[in-house]
Every structure is written in structure tokens, then in C-alpha cells.
């Protein structure tokens, strides 16, 4: 009986997903003013070896619809360093912002970052532990 009761509670008429904010994804988001500093802090933990990143370039944040929600997105390309000192292939990541703050990184960024205009991002190249 318990599974049936739980299923009845979970299945409502409104078919809304659970969210922790009031954001429904259709309103304009605030511009992420501090996106460069937030991204650098995140990359220190995201990369196994955050020192010596090669060829980093970054696109300015633009509003795009991702997963049916309006978000500011910035695109990043870089070559991370391996533990043996060699470098991996060029990687492209989309960084999504919600309410002006870094929310998550999308690893398959080919669709999201199509047409992005990149500029050098020397702060990532100079990143230290």
C-alpha cells in the first residue's frame, strides 16, 4: 500500500518538475558580472592539474535557451595538462549561469557554443594551485 500512496502523492495534475527557485526559465536573467572570477575559481577544482593550461579562450556571456530555459552562457576552450606534462586535445565547455551565478558546466558544448566569438583568456593560463 505504501508504494501506491507515494505514487499518488508524486503524480499531480500539474506535471511540474521540482525546482528550488521560482525560475521558470522564460524571464531575462541578470548578467553574470563576476563571471571571469567565478570561472577561474571553479576551474581550480574542475581540472585535475589546474597549472599550465594551454590555449585558453573565452566567449562573453550571451543569453541562450538551454534545456528549455533562458540562461546566460559563456563558452570556454582550453587544452588541459596531463600528469606526465603532456597536453590533452582541445576541449570546449559551456558554462551556464542562473541568477548571475555560475550554475553548471555542460561538457558537450557543440550545440550551445555554435557561433561563439572567442577572445584570449590569459588568466586561466596563469592559474596556480
Q: Which descriptors would you attach to this protein?
A:
alpha+beta; 3 helices; 129 residues; single chain; disordered N terminus; 6-stranded antiparallel β-sheet
Structure explained in plain terms:
The chain is an alpha+beta fold and 129 residues long. The chain contains three helices and six strands; from the N terminus they run ααββββββα. It has helices at residues 2-10, 35-46, 122-125, and strands at 54-59, 62-66, 69-79, 91-98, 101-106, 118-120. Strands 1, 2, 3, 4, 5 and 6 form a six-stranded antiparallel sheet that branches. A hairpin with a 2-residue loop joins β2 and β3 (69-79). The longest helix has 12 residues, at 35-46. The chain is globular and about 45 Å long. The protein starts with a helix and ends with a helix.
Overall average pLDDT: 84
Shape: globular
Structural class: alpha+beta
Give the DSSP E fraction (strand runs of 2 or more residues).
Answer: 25-35%
Please tell me how large the radius of gyration is: 19 Å
Please, how many helices?
3
Q: How many strands in all? A: 6
Please bin the fraction of helical residues. Answer: 10-25%
Order of helices and strands: HHEEEEEEH
Q: Span from first to last CA?
A: 54 Å
Could you give a short account of the major beta sheet? 6 strands, antiparallel
Ranges with pLDDT <50 over ≥5 residues?
2-8, 10-20
Amino acid at each position: 500500500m505504501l508504494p501506491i500512496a507515494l505514487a499518488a502523492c508524486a503524480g499531480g495534475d500539474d506535471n511540474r518538475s521540482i525546482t528550488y527557485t521560482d525560475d521558470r526559465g522564460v524571464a531575462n536573467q541578470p548578467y553574470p558580472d563576476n563571471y571571469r572570477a567565478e570561472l577561474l575559481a571553479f576551474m581550480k577544482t574542475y581540472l585535475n592539474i589546474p597549472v599550465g593550461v594551454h590555449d585558453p579562450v573565452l566567449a562573453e556571456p550571451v543569453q541562450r535557451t538551454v534545456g528549455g530555459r533562458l540562461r546566460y552562457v559563456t563558452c570556454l576552450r582550453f587544452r588541459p595538462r596531463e600528469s606526465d606534462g603532456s597536453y590533452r586535445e582541445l576541449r570546449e565547455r559551456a558554462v551556464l549561469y542562473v541568477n548571475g551565478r555560475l550554475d553548471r558546466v555542460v561538457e558537450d558544448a557543440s550545440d550551445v557554443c555554435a557561433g561563439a566569438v572567442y577572445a584570449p583568456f590569459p588568466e586561466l593560463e596563469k592559474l596556480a594551485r
